[in-house]
Specification:
mainly beta; Immunoglobulin-like; 3 domains; 5-stranded mixed beta sheet; 20 strands; about 45% strand
Length: about 350
């Protein structure tokens, strides 16, 4: 993530109609060692202080296209390594094959995914790698836990650097401790590379808190809106800020990070106010049965009347913002009917 422009030219100084250029070097958007080919570059603009879900991308007519702009990019050649990089100083995981591996984080909880980036380079002769194996080794005693296995199709040529990216999850029953994440390949002999990882005690919650209203609204078989922990009023003053204390429960592993919208709908079903936020911590990291609380503040409409307060879950990265459908039908769940007074 980066600023839209230089530090001394922040976006609040921009003027309507102005055209500005942001330069994003290839090694910044796709990284060193990325293989040639076609890529989708997802561009999102957001307010880090409040609107993490991002600003809407809209057409000239105002139609929503999602929270991210997808640009089709073609990478004609591999992004080279830095000029001072020396692959022979990396770990030789198999004779003539060197790797440099990095983790997105080094402190995780059981079941929490982390991203493993690996730069590969063969020296002297061609090398084929078809499989990567990960295992979790306790540092204090000779105990090994199963990890993830990945199929690869790497045909490495001397001097060519290739990057692969993998999503690794510590076992959900992995005891808190200090571990080595061990990497090996199917090309024998293989010399393991061990990366230090601290597995912290789990903070995930699987018991629902006390709910003042139970909804059990099933969104697409992915997440359930269990209910709310604070009562929703039947009447508020115009412009008054309303806290909506939602409780979610994961049903299955989510394929992506969904966002939630809470909206005021008038008598004709038109939205007159809303609040959008991503589901906390990224819904793709939730485990089945996990309970997650989310508090959202939403200002009541300025015009008195009777409104429906609804909630929906959607994909913020796809044009049209497709919503998860409810098991009972429709794509929005009504939280309450609220009278807005003067």
């Amino acid at each position: 993530d980066r600023r839209l422009a230089a530090y001394n030219y922040p976006s609040f100084r921009w003027r309507p109609g102005q055209t500005l250029v942001t330069r994003l070097p290839g090694e910044a958007w796709v990284g060193q060692g990325a293989r040639p080919g076609n890529y989708w570059l997802h561009v999102r603009v957001y307010d880090p202080a409040s609107a993490l879900a991002g600003l809407d991308v809209i057409t000239a007519e105002g139609a929503p296209l999602g929270k991210a702009l997808r640009l089709k990019m073609h990478l004609p050649v591999t992004i080279p390594l830095a000029t001072d990089a020396d692959p022979r100083s990396w770990h030789e995981i198999s004779p003539g094959v060197f790797i440099q591996a990095t983790l997105s984080v080094q402190n995780v909880e059981p079941g929490q995914p982390l991203t493993l980036n690996i730069l590969w380079q063969a020296v002297d002769e061609d090398a084929a790698i078809h499989g990567l194996r990960t295992r979790w080794n306790e540092r204090r005693r000779a105990v090994q836990w199963d990890g993830n296995d990945f199929e690869l199709d790497l045909q490495l040529q001397p001097g060519q650097t290739v990057r692969t990216v993998h999503r690794v999850r510590p076992p959900i029953d992995l005891p808190p401790d200090e571990y080595w994440l061990e990497l090996t390949v199917d090309r024998m002999p293989t010399r393991p590379l061990s990366l230090p990882v601290t597995v912290a005690p789990p903070t995930r919650v699987y018991e629902r808190p006390a709910l003042v209203q139970v909804f059990d609204a099933d969104f697409g078989g992915v997440v359930t809106l269990a209910g709310v922990t604070a009562p929703l009023p039947s009447q508020v003053a115009a412009g008054e800020t309303l806290e909506v204390a939602l409780v979610w429960q994961a049903q299955n592993l989510a394929p992506l990070d969904y966002a939630v919208t809470v909206q005021w709908l008038d008598e004709n079903g038109r939205p007159v106010g809303q609040r959008d936020e991503p589901l906390p911590r990224g819904s793709s990291t939730w485990l089945p049965g996990e309970v997650v609380a989310q508090s959202m503040n939403l200002a009541a409409p300025q015009t008195p009347g009777i409104y429906r307060l609804i909630v929906a879950v959607y994909d913020p990265g796809t044009p049209g913002l497709p919503r998860l459908t409810l098991a009972a039908g429709g794509d929005a769940f009504q939280l309450a009917r609220v009278t807005v007074g003067e």
